[in-house]
Amino acid sequence: MNATVYKSTGSWYIVKDDAGNQFNARMLGKFKIDGLTSTNPIAVGDVVNIEMENEIEGSVTITEIKKRKNYITRTSPANKHQHHIIASNLDQSLLFATLKDPKTSQGFIDRFLITSEAYHISSIIIFNKSDLYRKKEADKFAEVKSIYEAIGYIAVSMSIENGDGVEAVKAMLKDKVTLLSGHSGVGKSTFINTVFPSLKLKTQNVSGWSGKGLHTTTFAEMFDLPLPGSGKIIDTPGIRELGLVDISKKELSHYFPEMRALINDCQFNNCMHLDEPGCAIKSSVNKGSIAMDRYISYCNILETISEKTY
Question: Cβ neighbours of residue 282 under 8 Å, at least 6 residues apart?
Answer without folding.
Answer: 273, 274, 276
